Q: What sequence folds into this?
């Protein structure tokens, strides 16, 4: 993004100060603060930094570099260095996901990303899903401490990797912006997240403010800031996503969707923002099938049925080892269009030799023993199908309920922002075919990728966005989907592919007619 100066969350200032002497006996702290007053006004000087002033300032002959962080309303002095160190100005953006954690090292003079790494969250050893980890830590301080330490260890491994690949010490990064869901941020701080899941579902906190990284055990030289959450299921990762999507700045009506294990969605524009969230399930990440897997090497990621034959691609071009979320969506959409399944998702065994019965249950054999990479049959079963349709129904019902509560028809949505890894790799036509997304003109869809990470990066390189973060957190009206008395009956209607009301999906209806599936 060019080499121009940017308004990063931290500033570095080089000062040449007059030393004490000849009757000048002003304290070192006051000497430094006096030099900053004109540009920064009131500056907070931390006690920890006070211990560093002597002997650093005297040894540097009072030529020092100061690092300040913008808290939105004031500045805090967070680091002192000898000499002119303004050219070395670094920060970190982090997406703290329940499955994986991603981190960017950024040059805060230019905004350039110097390195990026991603690894699995070490919390997984205490449960594959969030709820398992919550129960593991509930009212057990030692267990909670173990989950927090696993989180910190994940951060430190990423810092070490970035240090290795870039040659820049983690101690030179004085600011880190962390974006994650409400539970993940509780775990990071070692706070029991149980209240998030117990009535009245209120988090222990929504804001963290600035925290010293070393107090949490994170091996950087400065502070971290966590994106604030709005509610139990609506966390800082969603606030980050909205910062990237910019709904709050636009006149057009936008819908932000992030569907994973949880589904989060926000509808609105610069005049209003209404959000809802709830559990969607692990199906979209390949987590429901015996042969389901994450989007890693060997995972089936796309499917086409041509002339009644199944054609697959896998990540890395390897023989298939299982199927990930995008592959499942393609598989179901293609089977629906070609009549291998009916509108309720039931298999039609007479339609293909690939539909087989195993242990009294039908399934589609997408790789036999000779075709797979592990010598085993790979099946997507009727049970898998049912679980996926439940997840799809929950996600699409949340969207429909949010729109109806505001009296908005699907076609009134002028821009639909799709966030998350699942949304990045999914085939849009397949997702609409099975009813996961509304049937809107395709040009209205915007794919944001990892908007949690990008939102953290956006704040890191532009401290002025702190005001926007605060406004987003305050302005969002949160709907409890669980409080909707007809939510279950709505979900039942959404269990059909794409829906019981075909008129809601005109392009799918046309495609089914073309295939002879509808009159």
A:
């Amino acid at each position: 993004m060019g080499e121009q100066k940017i308004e990063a969350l931290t500033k570095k200032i080089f000062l040449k100060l007059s030393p004490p002497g000849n009757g000048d006996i002003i304290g070192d702290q006051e000497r430094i603060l006096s030099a900053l007053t004109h540009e920064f006004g009131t500056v907070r000087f931390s006690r920890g930094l006070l211990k560093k002033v002597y002997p650093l300032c005297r040894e540097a002959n009072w030529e020092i570099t100061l690092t300040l962080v913008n808290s939105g309303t004031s500045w805090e002095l967070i680091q002192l260095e000898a000499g002119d160190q303004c050219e070395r100005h670094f920060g970190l953006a982090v997406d703290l996901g329940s499955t994986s954690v991603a981190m960017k090292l950024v040059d805060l003079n230019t905004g350039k990303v110097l390195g990026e790494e991603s690894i699995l969250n070490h919390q997984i050893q205490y449960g594959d899903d969030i709820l398992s980890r919550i129960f593991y830590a509930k009212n057990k301080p030692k267990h909670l401490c173990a989950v927090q330490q696993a989180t910190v260890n994940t951060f430190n491994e990423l810092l070490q990797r970035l240090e290795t690949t870039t040659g820049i010490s983690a101690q030179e990064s004085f600011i880190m912006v962390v974006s994650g869901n409400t539970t993940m941020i509780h775990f990071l701080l070692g706070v029991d997240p149980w209240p998030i899941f117990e009535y009245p579902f209120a988090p222990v906190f929504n804001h963290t403010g600035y925290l010293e990284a070393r107090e949490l055990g994170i091996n950087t030289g400065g502070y971290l800031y966590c994106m604030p959450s709005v509610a139990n299921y609506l966390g800082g990762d969603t606030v980050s996503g909205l910062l990237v999507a910019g709904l709050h700045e636009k006149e057009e009506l936008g819908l932000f969707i992030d569907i994973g294990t949880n589904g989060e969605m926000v509808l609105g524009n610069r005049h209003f923002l209404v959000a809802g969230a709830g559990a969607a399930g692990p199906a979209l990440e390949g987590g429901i099938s015996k042969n389901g897997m994450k989007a890693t090497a060997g995972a089936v990621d796309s499917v086409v049925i041509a002339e009644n034959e199944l054609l697959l691609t896998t990540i890395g071009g390897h023989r298939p080892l299982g199927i990930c979320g995008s592959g499942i969506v393609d598989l179901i959409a293609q089977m629906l269009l070609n009549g291998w399944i009916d509108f309720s998702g039931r298999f039609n065994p007479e339609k293909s030799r690939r539909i087989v019965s195993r242990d009294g249950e039908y399934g589609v054999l997408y790789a036999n023993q000779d075709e797979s990479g592990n010598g085993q049959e790979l099946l997507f079963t009727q049970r898998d199908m049912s679980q996926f349709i439940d997840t799809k129904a929950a996600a699409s019902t949340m969207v429909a309920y949010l729109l109806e509560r505001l009296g908005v028809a699907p076609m009134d949505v002028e821009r639909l922002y799709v966030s998350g890894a699942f949304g990045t790799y999914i085939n849009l036509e397949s997702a609409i075919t099975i009813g996961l997304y509304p049937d809107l003109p395709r040009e209205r869809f915007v794919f944001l990728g990892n908007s949690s990470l990008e939102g953290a990066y956006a704040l890191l390189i532009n401290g002025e966005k702190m005001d926007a973060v605060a406004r987003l957190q305050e302005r969002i009206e949160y709907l409890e989907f669980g409080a909707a008395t007809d939510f279950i009956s709505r979900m039942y209607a959404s269990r059909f592919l794409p829906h019981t009301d075909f008129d809601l999906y005109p392009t799918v209806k046309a495609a089914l007619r073309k295939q002879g599936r509808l009159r």
Observations:
- The radius of gyration is 26 Å.
